Amino acid sequence: MAHSSSHHPYPRSARVNQILREVISEEILRLGDVDERLGFLTVTGVEITADMRQAMVYLDSLDEERAAALEERRAQIQGSVNAQTRLKRTPRLSFMADPAIASGNAVEDALRRQRHDDD
Q1: What residue segments make up the domains of the chain, in order of their start?
Q2: Residue 106 banded pLDDT, cuts 50, 70, 90
């Protein structure tokens, strides 16, 4: 009998990014119940490095207070990733504001200013 390999429609890193996004989102939501600095924080994406040792977690907004809270809770979030995934090693998580959202906000602000100037 031939060994059937499972063919996935997208690469492993994309699948890992999605799994990490789900696990990290759930953990941040849970932590938001005990640390108000993490309330209403949305994970917009995750990018893991090719060697799977580091992952950049993109968030809808990230001020200094939230960044400090995430750094304080990073080991806890990584522990959750370790417990809920089958990765050989847990990637080190880094957090940053999603540049696409920041640039979208800048465009909206510019359009608002333009409309205001036109009035």
Answers
A1: 12-118
A2: low
Gap between the Cα atoms of 73 and 38, Å rounded: 10
> Is domain 12-118 given the CATH code 3.30.300.20 in the classification?
yes
Which conformational region is residue 100 in: left (phi greater than 0), alpha (psi within -120 to 50 degrees), or beta? Answer: alpha
Sheet (strand 54-59) strand order: 43-48, 54-59, 92-97
Dist. CA 31–CA 38, nearest whole Å: 7
Given this model, what pLDDT does residue 99 score? 86
> Are the beta carbons of 23 and 81 closer than 8 angstroms?
yes
Question: Percentage of the chain with pLDDT > 70?
Answer: 82
| Confidence at residue 8, expressed as pLDDT on a 0 to 100 scale | 54
